[in-house]
Amino acid sequence: MGTVDGAGPPVGKPRETPTGSGGRLADELTAMFEGRFPGLIGMRVLEASGTAVTGELTVREELQAPNGYLHAATVVALADTMCGVGARLSLPSGASGFTTLELKTNYLGTARSGTVTAQATLVHGGRRTQVWDATVRDGAGTAIALFRCTQMILYPSAPQQNSSTPPNLTTFEAE
Questions:
Q1: Alpha-carbon Rg of the chain, whole angstroms?
Q2: Residue 22 is inside which H or E element, if any?
Q3: For the residues of the chain, what is the DSSP string, one character each?
Q4: With contact defined as beta carbons under 8 Å apart, do 61 and 47 qualify?
Q5: What is the pLDDT of residue 172?
Q6: CB neighbourhood size of 87 (10 A)
Q7: Does 171 score more than 90 pLDDT?
Q8: What percent of the chain has pLDDT over 70?
Q9: Closest-CA residue to 91 (of 155, 25, 38)
């Protein structure tokens, strides 16, 4: 990503994915958020593995819409971030990263105070794509949003080889 106008070098470098376990891993993932959007709005990872991630966020006035309810984008950010943490932890061998292809959210309610929690689970962990679901709940445990995203798995580019043989365009590699 470049500057606001799209010119110039990227403004930040990717951070390494922590490799700890248990509470230590959750703390390291939360620390990875510092100075980036998830950290700025106060997201915390509670538990994490390559198949399930739980995180939370304290509702505060800055995260509310003008109507006094939790802003819809805040809900999406929490769910998407927890799914993204899981995607990072479950990348296939040789993968260099991932990017979101699609996301969808169904809102069932909202929160005006307390803590909201997102529980993300891996639905499909393929070599080229991952599908994650997350449920966002208010402090009483009531579901306020259902979220699903599809992640495309990225691999390092292969060096271009000069060949006089044209590629076979009728074959493809199935997942």
A1: 19
A2: helix 22-32
A3: ---TTS-SS-SS-PPPPP---HHHHHHHHHHHTTTSHHHHTT-EEEEE-SSEEEEEEE--GGGB-TTSSBPHHHHHHHHHHHHHHHHHHTPPTT--EEEEEEEEEEE----SSSEEEEEEEEEEE-SSEEEEEEEEE-TTS-EEEEEEEEEEEE-PPPPP---SSPP-TT-----
A4: no
A5: 41
A6: 26
A7: no
A8: 87
A9: 155
pLDDT confidence of residue 20: 81
Place of tokens 């979220």: 147
Predicted local confidence at residue 8, as pLDDT:
83
Calculate the alpha carbon distances from 9 to 5, 108, 149, 156 in Å: 11, 41, 29, 20
Secondary structure (3-state) at 31 = helix
Question: Are the C-beta atoms of residues 117 and 54 closer than 8 Å to each other?
Answer: yes
